[in-house]
Amino acid sequence: MGLVSLVAIALIGVMALKWIVTSKRDEPITRGRLKQKWFERRKQKRTPDLSKILTCEEHLAALRKLDSSRRKWLPLVALIGAGILAFGIWRGRDLVLLQSIGTRTEGTVVRIESETNSSSEGSRYTYYSVVQFETAAGREVTFRDGIGSSQPIDERGEILGVIYDPGNLERAIIDRGFWNWAIPGGCGLFGGFTLLASLRGLIGAFRRRGMDLNPRGEAVE
Length: 221
Fold this sequence. Notes:
Order of helices and strands: HHHEEEEEH
Shape: flat
Number of helices: 4
Strand content: 15-25%
Distance between the termini: 73 Å
Helix content: 40-55%
């Protein structure tokens, strides 16, 4: 018999002993008794604690306090969302321009660079691929990919697609296809959702100010 089986048998024995001790001695432990106790415990869990239920006045006071907090903090949240959205739009616009006017070629990963990020949980490393490619004019250019990761994505000596701006060779990226849109798309979606949600909550909080509300927080005519 394995160790797991012995532990399981021991736990079952302890639970059975506890049940016998806590049960009344003059009542036999039958299947019906066990079923009755199980239903009683379920009923106790489902029965609400009336002392924790808010009255209508307490509920309305809590709603007004929540609206006051929303009017205070949601403008800052909306501003942060607008900033993230603007950053995503800017990165997306820059990527569209580079893909439209840029030249595609192939490059070689010459090395992997790492940066240390210190935090309360310890030091973490971020890895970046350094790629070298040759332009149509025969000039060799080396750049570091702008997207880092906790683990190296590429290997040294690996051949990758590259998109670069012939008029500004410093503008070059690794052509990762759909994944090039990860940062612009993610920032756009997150920033847009944050901005819309905060504006909706802010508008509702200002509309309810000074109104008579029912317990559900709806305006009363």
